[in-house]
Amino acid sequence: MRWAMFLSNDARARLYKPAFRAIVGEQSGQLVSSLFEGSGGRLAQQIRCDMRLYLPENILPKVDMMSMATSLEARVPYLDNDVIDLALSIPAHLKVRGGVRKWILKKAFEGRLPPQILSRGKEGFSMPMKNWLNGEWNPLMHELLSRSNLAWEGIFDANYIAALIRQHEAGTHNHSHTLWALMVYHMWSDQYARRAPIRQVEVCTAT
Q1: pTM passes above 0.90
Q2: In this structure, what are the phi and psi dihedrals at residue 62, rounded to the nearest 5 degrees?
Q3: Which of 39, 46, 96, 130 could form a disulfide bond with 176, CB atoms 3.0-4.6 angstroms apart?
Q4: Domain presence at residue 53
Q5: What is the number of structural domains in the chain?
Q6: What's the CA gap between 94 and 156, in Å, rounded?
Q7: Which domain holds residue 142?
Q8: What are φ and ψ of residue 184, in 5° steps?
Q9: Runs of H (alpha helix) within the chain
């Protein structure tokens, strides 16, 4: 849910200009929230959410695209149908024990793998966006999020975005998610939306 809604309603209210805010209203994240309904407890709900959103919309496409880009044949053995069925049938209290995640898997390989492997923390797939926006991509950020670009559409508050940029560059806050999303939007807008009447842009964005 945090990844799907990384802006709070308060931050979104400051980001949008009043006229556009009136069009889109507040976002509630109902799609993600609906996946937390059902039986099985919180862990089972989180697993359902991962299986419906995080795996097919994030991790698996990354593995597929990056492996194919380098001519590698990647496999995901833990997503074998039989393994998935078995994992879903295991009670939650056996999956996480004493705050230790993947408890069954670690016990199964205890004595077979070195302790430093079993206790090693996870390595994520995140990019160093924070550093890029303060380094080689900084000029692009200022170009895309310039006041002239923002003024043309009348969607985003230029003063608020300028404050986000100042805080990010000063290192007091990490606004990389928000700034990068705005940059991607404006790259799309420069290529497509400016060819359409402004009213169409508002309706398309609100949708």
Answers
A1: no
A2: -60, -45
A3: 130
A4: yes
A5: 2
A6: 48
A7: 128-206
A8: -65, -40
A9: 9-15, 18-24, 30-35, 41-49, 60-69, 81-89, 92-95, 103-108, 115-118, 129-134, 138-144, 147-153, 158-170, 176-191, 198-206
